[in-house]
Amino acid sequence: MNGFQAAIGLGKRELIRQVRQPSRIIASVLTPMLIWIFIVGGFSSAIGQDNTDANLTAYMIPGVASLTVMFASIFASISLIQDRHDGFLRAALISPAPRWSIVVGKVGAGALVAMVQGLVVLAALPFLGVQLSVVGVLGACAGLALISIALIGLGLGLAWIVDSSQGFHGIMNAVLMPMWLTSGAVFPINDAAGWLRVIALCNPLTWAHGAIRSSVGMVGIEGMPTGLDWLITFAFAGACVVLAIAVMGRASRRV
Questions:
Q1: N- to C-terminal Cα distance for the chain?
Q2: Stated pTM of the model
Q3: Which of 43, 136, 156, 220 has the smallest CB count inside 10 Å?
Q4: For 109-126, how does the pLDDT look when each residue is reduced to its tens digit (9 = 90+)?
Q5: Which residues does 46 contact at the CB level (< 8 Å), separation at least 6?
């Protein structure tokens, strides 16, 4: 069987599964938006309101969009555990389709859904004074898609290690929430304390947020070469997908 045909078939299955579970989609968008409302409601004057780039209300939108993508990616990754318990994963692994087609199918479908959900959040930017262009929207789409690809790939790798849905949620939150909080999603890292800025610069989500913000005309990561944020974001996504494929290839005996 052609690997790409298998990946497309598995991707369609994942899309149908996620569309039939609208509660997950609603939760993925509503929870980050509530966090945004509460934070900007209490700290909207912390870094000023005169400059759009310094406006916390608008500044947080890309970070909230990535948090939406994060939740959607967790839901997409956990489907691997469900497939294992239902016996579908065993059937997929003993089929003629290559192992990587399973990863590509799940990552492709999950990234598409997550990107659309993230764009729903980014749609608030024009109402906050940020002018969007076609190129900017395309850049934001690419940034959100790369974040989702990376997080789903990471999640699929961890799903092989953790055989419990509850344990998987706990580990993913323990890994991803600190990454999100130290990535400049809430406050700019350009004026952060030295130790926090070092941690942020080592965090691949920081560069993904910088790429999205620069695409929509906001301030990215100051003092860094142009294009470095996109290079690191692409590398992060690629590394996580490779990790998932490698783990699945070695761990297939567990199914």
A1: 21
A2: 0.84
A3: 43
A4: 888 888 888 888 888 888
A5: 56, 187
